[in-house]
Design brief:
Shape of chain A: globular
Strand order of the largest sheet of chain A: 3-2-1-4-5-7-6
Number of helices of chain A: 8
Strand content of chain A: 15-25%
Oligomer: homohexamer
Number of strands of chain A: 7
Radius of gyration of chain A: 17 Å
Chain lengths: 236, 236, 236, 236, 236, 236
């Protein structure tokens, strides 16, 4: 990769409520982007310390952060940041909103992934609302305290985890990276031991692939925002 | 099965917009009910003559009706009725509504399956509205022209086909009949040759099973109406 | 009632935002269940101390707790627990969610009643969301800090108080217990003195009964979740 | 009533899908308006010939039209028009839309009542959509074939029949005319013999009255459109 | 204006999340009401201190409060109250709800303006929910701690700011006060310097005016609640 | 433009319910695409013969077709096709759906514009549903009678006309073509004489431009479907 390529590198920022959500929701698409040289960062809101009824929270969070780092490497992400908010989010504060604005303005992502807006799990829905609210607030001449310049990603996509998207606007063929996605997912051993998310995710990818008529395996997304630049034909 | 058992036999009535919808949506649950001795009837609104871009409609409908009969046998259903409405429903008429009232009052089902209410496919959504409208109209002292007595099933369930249910109220473990369901589905060769519905359905069943924490394979349903009799604890 | 019957006793757990909500929403159905030997527990989130513009909060909560205990006895409930959250809920915290998981896992209810999901009153809607969120979180291998084993009721029903259910899935004929329900309701004298909830509730029961074609008086419910066990025909 | 009063007379136009819907939904409010000298016209879309499972349609429609005329007199309406569309509406045609535009432009109502928009009964929902679509189309310089001048009522209100309004904007105290409303309703003997709509409606009026804190009996309405003239404070 | 007129003076209370929202949403209508002698009070929830990415919050809030006072004078409002809640609301507390009840019961408004319910901006949506929740709670014999008597405005209207109303019930012709509205809006120099809200608002008023067929400029509103008194024809 | 450019030419297909809807909804964006060499076709479902209360339908349709052809030329479109369905659509038939499939498969568009899905005008909403239903049905191996091969556009966008989009996903800066858009719009003299759509549209474009923070004039769109190819970063 020469200098020109470097300059063209695009940045991806993915937010997840728990350490394994990003892999479940958009791991296959991220792996494809990583192969094309995109710089991918994961921001994980809670360290998932409530993710067991056996292991106490303080041990669990350490275990799950390690799993998240491992999984991110498998996907090809460059970094993982942990916000360490308490697992089991029931809402968000103004401070958390400012945190998110700060991160978005610092990392200046071109592509942003986040939980889709209608998730049945409250923790996921809160994550979605928090990030989307920060996106709006961070895009204009507001919130001096968050520092940085106003920023808007070129495309914002919502991914599905516990709740299937009723309508989706974009389907991505992940046949080429499904195994990478599943390998990343199985890094989250503390979770997949109890619930076979890996099998579930393989099943859903197949269903999505067939029903979108692509024939392969697929991840589907809600298009939350797209700039003219993001869409080929509208680059005037 | 003695006389008493006979008397207790319960009746199931399933409506599908196309010849393969019932198997896709509730074939596994039906197979379980068939094993318990329920009498199952399929009513298929259109004969799916638009289900190909190669074969002309008049041939297609004959092919698909045969497939539907074969598949119903695999499931263990007792009968299939074809309404022969034109495939590609965009609405329904008063006459179709009276047809449905007549069928419901004649067959007096205890369990009724139909497409769920938010299906993305218009033909499926029309089927759902038509049957649910007939259910309401057929349950009271109305529509003399349809004949018969007012009738209400004990439970009415909506199944998913092209569009995943965002929320569902009932999940049925179909691990024991998944293979029967898939066998029935592959009777619809004219369809599965072009689009691998069988693989899609296997994938979705796995996803539903894992995410409902049952661990097996599952079909999920929207509970549209339930009588006190249908629910154990409310039989006073 | 012999030993076998005892063993079969089923447990009911009802949540209400205020001391009189449960009686208004599902008092008639509870009375029927009590007659069949179900063990019923009421959990009341706030003690309704804002329920007057004359009496100061600290007196009001004591009055209303006594009223709630009296009313529960009339219904035939076994116990009432007061969470003493501040009346006028505008949201809920993670701690409240853990409280609810703990109660559900401790009491292991087979039937769970809670405010329906679309209530127009914010305090009621918050109660509904809180309990349903705890139900989901308490049903899997999560939240060690709440203690106990994962638990899921066989049926979860939403009842109506201030806001009528637009759609309901289950109607229960309470003709036999309407007077018991009203007697329980009038125990909440601090409330019915100002607003004639008793007359309102009698009127709604009649409307629901007639419009559901049962002919008697009725309470109607949103079916939020039902297990295969809860529904007669799906006990395989 | 002198000349000045005459000039001030306002016109009310109410649409109902069946002969008894208007009395059920807004009979109490209409009776109040009649007492104030408003000229009230009822337009009944179908003659309700499907309203029995005993009496054949052709007899039923004649019976019900007579009942509707009687009931309108009790309320104090000036006229009833029957569109004689087939009972059991499943949609509407362009011709029906033009019919409605013609009626609205001819009668030039100041107040218009129609089924609320979310009715669970399809026939009622179709009536609502048909009339509201005609209202929009009839308000501008369009549809020459309907004749007349563009017209918009000062206020358009949706009333409830089978399905309770989840949210309502206007509650009218009908304590003074409840008995008139019920007397009008019982004119529809062919209906109230089978289903006690009168008792249902009395119950709902009480519930609405208490819950809207008026203390009396009430009818509630969806405000669908209001002009500046209709609202006191906005007459500039 | 003599004594009788004084007595008839009506009170308007408008709530805004930020210092410029009221002018944007209902400034033209308020100016018309002011001309008719209505007493108008503005209650501004946050002082908009996050409204810049250059100026620190503590300076910003002082600047914007001054702008709000100036703008209110242009409109003809009598007073402005600042709640000084932190800008960037992500929810509201019980205390804030009691604050709002207290204000409503103290100022006893006949007309109340607030952000419409579906605003896309979270801060605006929170403001809407907070005020509407306080309206409901303040209208009955509840919340002794807020003091005062139960109060309900005659009409409650939702105005649009960032998000256009999909459906509106009331359109007010503001041709006569559009320039006043824009003059008031340009008092918010700290905001209009960066984003040309004035041009946006002029554009929207024109669109609303033409599309409502009034031909002039218009502000449109969601009718959230209307009493019988508010609507001419229902003053019985 | 040499041969290579020709080969790259992309095709745009826009559907409108009436002769002026396309110009109002996406005329500015189309003009930009025309400048880049896209081949644009307009398909107009009804010839708008109900668009006057003075001129009889048979004259009106001829007038409006001429206006539509003129306007399309101003925009830079290559062709206009008239379906001549009766103006005032209240639903669509199976035949109309097959018509639409045939057109889509014949013209093989890369970009497709259609009325957005929540339009308040029924005729527009019907147009939207009809085209979207045909898109789904035309994309798979179905509907032999429509001829042609399955086809899916790379991007499907919903435009706003009478009803503002509550949420939009894509905003296009049309500052460079606003005057062209308005010039095209004023070709529809039979319409703009009565209602100043041109001023309305200019106003909305300004509001959309400012509120999307682009600063210029804008058209906004609902992204209904996007393929991987349509979005820059997902061309793997």
């Amino acid at each position: 990769m020469g200098r020109k390529m470097k300059k063209e590198l695009k940045r991806v920022l993915s937010f997840g409520a728990h350490p394994d959500d990003i892999e479940i929701g958009c791991g296959g698409t991220e792996a494809l982007l990583a192969q094309k040289g995109y710089e991918i960062t994961h921001v994980i809101l809670t360290s998932g310390e409530a993710g067991s009824d056996r292991i106490p929270p303080w041990e669990m969070s350490a275990i799950r952060e390690k799993e998240a780092i491992k999984a991110a490497k498998v996907i090809g992400a460059c970094g993982v940041e942990f916000m360490k908010y308490p697992d089991g989010l029931t809402g968000f504060t103004r401070e958390m909103k400012v945190d998110m604005i700060r991160i978005i303005r610092r990392l200046k992502p071109h592509i942003l992934f986040v939980h889709e807006r209608n998730e049945s799990s409250l923790g996921h829905r809160v994550a979605s609302e928090l990030v989307l609210e920060a996106l709006q607030a961070g895009s204009g001449p507001w919130f001096q305290e968050a520092g940085g310049e106003p920023w808007s990603p070129e495309i914002v996509l919502g991914y599905e985890v516990w709740h299937p998207l009723g309508r989706y606007e974009l389907s991505v063929d992940i046949s080429a990276t499904l195994e990478t996605k599943l390998k990343a997912l199985t890094c989250h051993r503390s979770q997949t031991a109890g619930v076979r998310y890996d099998e579930a995710v393989r099943g859903l990818a197949r269903w999505r692939g067939v029903m979108s008529l692509s024939g392969g395996d697929a991840e589907v997304f809600e298009v939350i925002k797209a700039s003219q630049n993001a869409i080929n034909c509208f680059k005037f």
